[in-house]
Amino acid sequence: xxxxxxMAKALNAxxxxxxxxxxxxxxxxxxxxxxxGVFRITDGLQKDFGEDRVIDTPLAESAILxxxxxxxxxxxxxxxxxxxxxxxxxxxxxxVSQVAKIHFRSRGRMPMPIVIRIPFGGGIxxxxxxxxxxxxxxxxxxxxxxxxxxxxxDAYWMIQQAIAADDPVVFLEPxxxxxxxxxxxxxxATPPPLFTSRTVREGSDLTLLAYGPTVRLCRDAALAxxxxxxxxxxxxxxxxxxxxxxPVFASVRRTGHAVVVHEAARSLGMGSEIAARIxxxxxxxxxxxxxxxxxxxxxxPPSRIEEEYxxxxxxxxxxVDRSLAY
Amino acid sequence: xxxxxxMAKALNAxxxxxxxxxxxxxxxxxxxxxxxGVFRITDGLQKDFGEDRVIDTPLAESAILxxxxxxxxxxxxxxxxxxxxxxxxxxxxxxVSQVAKIHFRSRGRMPMPIVIRIPFGGGIxxxxxxxxxxxxxxxxxxxxxxxxxxxxxDAYWMIQQAIAADDPVVFLEPxxxxxxxxxxxxxxATPPPLFTSRTVREGSDLTLLAYGPTVRLCRDAALAxxxxxxxxxxxxxxxxxxxxxxPVFASVRRTGHAVVVHEAARSLGMGSEIAARIxxxxxxxxxxxxxxxxxxxxxxPPSRIEEEYxxxxxxxxxxVDRSLAY
Amino acid sequence: MAxxxxxxxxxxxxxxxxxxxxxxxxxDDTIRSLYRDLVLTRRIDTEATAxxxxxxxxxxxxxxxxxxxxxxxxxxxxxxxxxxxxxxxHGVAWTRGVDPLSLLSLFRGVDQGSWDPEATGFGxxxxxxxxxxxxxxxxxxxxxxxxxxxxxxxxxxxAVIAYFGDGATSQGDVNEAxxxxxxxxxxxxxxxxxxxxxxxxxxxxxxxxxxxxxASGFGFPGVRVDGNDVLAVHAATQAALQRxxxxxxxxxxxxxxxxxxxxxxxxxxTRYRLxxxxxxxxxxxPVERVHAYLTRHVGAGEDFFSEIAEEADALAVRLREGxxxxxxxxILSVFDQVYVEESAELAQQRDEHAAYLDSFEDATDGARx
Amino acid sequence: MAxxxxxxxxxxxxxxxxxxxxxxxxxDDTIRSLYRDLVLTRRIDTEATAxxxxxxxxxxxxxxxxxxxxxxxxxxxxxxxxxxxxxxxHGVAWTRGVDPLSLLSLFRGVDQGSWDPEATGFGxxxxxxxxxxxxxxxxxxxxxxxxxxxxxxxxxxxAVIAYFGDGATSQGDVNEAxxxxxxxxxxxxxxxxxxxxxxxxxxxxxxxxxxxxxASGFGFPGVRVDGNDVLAVHAATQAALQRxxxxxxxxxxxxxxxxxxxxxxxxxxTRYRLxxxxxxxxxxxPVERVHAYLTRHVGAGEDFFSEIAEEADALAVRLREGxxxxxxxxILSVFDQVYVEESAELAQQRDEHAAYLDSFEDATDGARx
Lengths: 326, 326, 369, 369
Ligand SMILES: Cc1ncc(C[n+]2csc(CCOP(=O)(O)OP(=O)(O)O)c2C)c(N)n1
Ligand SMILES: Cc1ncc(C[n+]2csc(CCOP(=O)(O)OP(=O)(O)O)c2C)c(N)n1
Ligand SMILES: [Mg+2]
Ligand SMILES: [Mg+2]
Hints:
The complex is a heterotetramer, with 2 copies of chain A (326 residues) and 2 copies of chain C (369 residues).
Chain A: E1 2-5, H1 7-21, E2 25-29, H2 45-49, E3 54-56, H3 61-73, E4 77-81, H4 92-99, H5 102-105, E5 115-120, H6 135-139, E6 145-148, H7 152-164, E7 169-174, E8 183-186, E9 198-201, E10 206-210, H8 213-227, E11 232-236, E12 239-241, H9 246-255, E13 258-265, H10 270-281, E14 291-295, H11 306-309, H12 313-324
Parallel strand pairs in A: 2-3, 2-4, 4-5, 5-7, 6-7, 10-11, 10-13, 13-14
Antiparallel strand pairs in A: 1-8, 6-12, 9-11
Chain C: H1 28-53, H2 67-74, E1 82-84, H3 90-95, H4 100-108, H5 117-120, H6 131-145, E2 160-165, H7 172-183, E3 188-194, E4 197-198, E5 201-202, E6 222-226, H8 230-246, E7 251-256, H9 275-282, H10 286-298, H11 302-324, H12 344-362
Helix pairs in contact in C: 1-2, 1-10, 1-11, 2-8, 6-7
The complex binds thiamine diphosphate (TPP) (2 copies) and magnesium ion (2 copies).
């Protein structure tokens, strides 16, 4: 059965399916209940599953994660919503020192099947702290898994897979696309495994690597480039930790060129790890250095200039030009 | 005048000199007063400068940094001691969303001359959370500067330079070496600028990049390699944000080979950024991929096996072999 | 009957009330002046909301209903005191002489706060809930070290006031601020505007007892005032600030009020609260009761009120025009204020981007793809 | 004279005392059994300290002086209750049937906690100060959702106890745990061992009023008990646990005690505290007073005491030998327990390292450089 959905609706439907499938699944966070979250991703869930399973929490992110740990120890599968990317940091300690480490600390006795949902990325005209891209910090943290969805179909399946996974998953949702492009979601299809990347568009001249909000940008760039006779392959990384780079290496071995695109600051962003891995695995195949199009190494700017700050079609194509001209 | 000092003593002397030079300099942290810190780095300072300038704080890292922000706004220069690397995370929000961003937010009106001292790295036989290497997360955060000292002379000067700097500096101290190798510190010398890397040993076959605890390891590796007729150049990065890579590029252009060594987890560790930058800047000069010797992508292990976990001479030399054999 | 645990000096009907511990320190002229503040503050808010609707602001956080809490407390500050706001303290900003246009530029997305915190004694807006309460406490510790607490010199002694909401009381940071202020006896007044809501969550999601009682657990006094009564708020804040300046340490003030509008312009409160509540609180309006008092007991007439209305109209025009005239910053400016001492690395990143931008200028048609 | 704000049921001299609200629920046999616990716990501690001195443990956190606080509270737990410790609750571990050897293996650096938290009802040691108080609160919320609170079935109703120190009360996490427990009325007992010190910092760095009063600010009861009086601790904990199990929500217990030893074996308390304090607290020893009571009022004789002493000696031997016999884990094991579902990426890292290690085996002399 296929239904046309925005990403917001797809996530909502995915969460609902997960709650129906397993009574141990809980939603918790600020405003997730009656309001259905500031983005309405949990819309209607409290009404249908009750206040014990969809918990409007006190305003304290460390406690959202800290109590989720306790609930997980008791056999629950908490899905924590962080209202905006910039507000995950009060919970950082619980995430990196507890959520990420308890399975290891307990020698496997205490799995932490917690999902941390984070609307991330910019472009919504918001004030400070509402447009951050914190993924690299989590991907650097052993014990966490980190994924990002980029369109409604993935959103629908990936959130269910993340909830079903027995490891803690940081689940990144490109908030700018919540209410954007719709897609036909086949709710009876068999989705690909969660921790896999996926080729979105095939091409032979250069490999464009993206995740979350930049997948669509890279698709657009590939389209624009094709009009100039250039064939770009676009890969949606989907999983940032673990990385699923074999398909990337295979692609780069064919194209000889790679450009990574993300909104997070360039230094120590995902692009750094991916470039480091590609140059190691595809050393002789590379015809140009791996290039990165990313946020600058500055705080996120005031929103009136965020479109100039964020990677855009021109900057991606410029990098493509530079790589191919190398 | 030169004095023989351990790194612990050198830091202590540097802090004392900074407090003498500027009455606005404050020390704050858990146990920094009467006890002089669990590593005795602030030994004797409270006695000489009083409880108003050397503050034994309540046990709350977020508040240590949060109040330091307020003190900085009032014109003070707080030097915050985080007792162990693993305990910086409760303060993470204040560090990345406040300390790092207030200068930017205020359009330059509010500098944040705060130093965050963190004893970091492993090898001291400690329990969990006492052997972490959190540097990459701070180096990814725009608005912070991040440096690491590796021996007593640098420790003496760099801490004073960090305190004198008008930007927030995360100051990483390789705790394993606090009471290790002593050095003759010339307290009247003119130190190199803070945000510069330094060539520790010249060589022509391969460039070894290190900082903090791995500098000594790489020096030892270069020595061992020289006995096998290999000439390794060792660069102490010293500054992790900003990076000072021009000397590194120059070196790699000569040697064609580079290996980065750090204790932090490999994925998204400093090595990823450095590899990404080297492959970009030295593309044609590289004769082998940039290799990384780092902590594994796992939590830090129980201490009885930490020596097997940490990068050691064999692993460094193995990477050197692999690079040169490429 | 009056609630014994709620300080009230002016009833919703506009009648003065007595309280054993608190008295309003001003005269009727002061009240006229506070009334003007209340009206102008409300007008700033109305205008900003309209500007947001017209697409001139990205978002706006309305203070509707909280005017008295903000004006009463802001006017209790002395020049040398320092306020640490959240994102909703437009009324306090007004009392500190911050040009409302600089609030609007923030919500427009032109900058993140352009006023001078030291010159105005009004810190930058802080969006991460509760973070500023620690900054306030640290600043207060700085005052202690500067020797401007408890000197008995009223022009010298200074204090700090930290604003936060009911929701914020659940954050670790706020509780740590309570602890530090108590342990160091810091000259800080914790001013909680309990507007009953944290976005969609009612106060019972944050506490099961009245918030002002939180202070007792940390060893300092807490008081609940009618947050819609500008006289009571002024009196209670003045007393707490005086305690702080004298070196007697922190106080928690809970200003019991109500968020009459949406959380921000992107919020839809009809999803989570009843309009009956709003009706109830309309009867307690903070501006109306001063209007009633001034009319009935001070003989303020048409002249007085219309003069203020004109001033408000003029202010609204200035805000409207000023907002529309605001220039966007240049993208290259983002590189400039990251550090005091720019790094070569970042300078290179800026230069590269400048060159990239120039490449479009150089292109024959000057256009991007 | 008895301190009215301190629950005491057995004086330092070994005399029973009355309290209007609390009574010890056991008989003299129970007290004999508690005495045994106290002695054995102390012996575990002494032995571990010695093992550390001999280089067999990396570090040890002594509970000397806190035996009664731990045994009294631990023995108040029912099988179905769950305890969340810090790193010092060796006595509580004992009451939960955790083999002390598994505490030693942690401090030796062989693992990070090898007992089964679900089977023992005793969570893993948590070193980040305060973090476990939130885990405890979440676990308690899980009990509520499992329907094992307030059912009136004593074998079913369960509660949680969270241990933490005086220093920990300053952490945001602990205060957030108080808030959540209060808002959700969670069945959790917050058990604070106020041993007067957080490493070198005396209690006045954390609070200016008695800690048990903290609870009132959050809307739940707090009580201070003589933490060196095993009967009082038992009674107060049992009452608080019962409240929790019945669905009446959280309680804060402050066990007023003293850290008689160093913070850990790496600490040197002579740098920051006076020996006079120690002398004062020696008179309040938690073991001695039970000894005195048993001797004077229960007629426990040589037999009883020497039997326990022998048991302690045997335990010490077992710990010594068991510790020395502990095998180090293999380095490759660090890859195994990072995730439930291993990733291909990490498997590759393990395989590479295994191959690297093998390369030494293959080398003619098998030796590394
Ligand atoms: C740390 C953090 N978490 C979440 C948010 C998102 N958020 C913004 S305002 C708000 C509610 C604040 O409620 P309250 O403290 O009562 O202040 P009010 O908005 O009512 O003035 C939330 C959850 C935030 N800004 N910071
Ligand atoms: C978040 C954090 N900060 C700092 C430390 C280092 N540290 C370990 S124990 C301790 C003092 C704890 O004092 P208290 O809570 O009174 O417990 P006690 O050790 O007295 O039992 C400190 C500061 C830590 N473990 N965690
Ligand atoms: Mg509110
Ligand atoms: Mg203590």
